[in-house]
Write a structure and sequence with these properties.
about 220 residues, alpha/beta, Rossmann fold
């Protein structure tokens, strides 16, 4: 199998570049493609922004149509699938998935596709493996980590920052959103190598892992 994995930012790419080989082994191939934000699905299912802006959901109709045409030409002994990974944020999961499938169902041909939503944010997948966080950040604040419930809607990146960043999330916010993005990428790089993909407690990570293996 070959997997094309679409993610909304560079921190997602950095995590999955490390985690995917743990999930699929070395007999399969993958490419993680980062975008510059999640955006929203266009109402008429026609991409409303320039492709160069690289906003994930804005470009999704065009992307899935293109993958459908491309994957149709792949040999039967090495098929391909596209995996969308993005944060739920404050969306309704049921409604969001219906919107995503509407985009997929409008494609002809349809690429093999799975939609994997991090609930609430990508940091939930890191927080699903507390031993990995402690291995990467031995001084992480246990009082913060111990109060976390997997895939809770709680301000996930802020909780991660409160656990591992000096002076916590408020100090990080004062540095601006670019600094937040850089720190998220650092967390992904530092925690992912220690993660046990088969023991992760995040239900949305388990869904991602199991869908990948199901396709294989």
């Amino acid at each position: 199998m070959h997997f094309e994995i679409l993610v909304e930012d560079s921190s997602g790419k950095r995590a999955l570049d490390i985690l995917m080989p743990k999930i699929i082994g070395n007999q399969h191939t993958f490419k993680v493609i980062p975008y510059r934000g999640v955006g929203r699905i266009p109402r008429n299912l026609q991409s409303g922004t320039d492709a160069g802006e690289r906003i994930l959901l804005d470009q999704l109709p065009r992307l899935l149509r293109g993958y459908g045409r491309t994957f149709a030409g792949y040999p039967s002994n090495h098929p391909a699938a596209v995996i969308l990974v993005c944060d739920l944020d404050d969306k309704c999961l049921k409604t969001f998935r219906q919107e995503l499938f509407a985009v997929l169902n409008a494609c002809n041909p349809k690429p093999t596709t799975r939609f994997c939503i991090a609930v609430e944010e990508g940091e939930a997948w890191l927080l699903g493996d507390m031993p990995a966080i402690k291995a990467a950040y031995p001084k992480a604040r246990d009082n913060v980590l111990n109060g976390y419930k997997n895939d809770a809607i709680c301000g996930t990146w802020e909780l991660m920052a409160d656990a591992v960043f000096i002076k916590g999330s408020e100090a990080l916010k004062r540095r601006g959103w670019r600094a937040v993005g850089r720190e998220k990428s650092t967390w992904a790089e530092n925690v992912s190598p220690h993660m046990d993909v088969d023991a992760n407690a995040s239900p949305s990570f388990q869904y991602f892992r199991d869908k990948i293996r199901e396709i294989i």
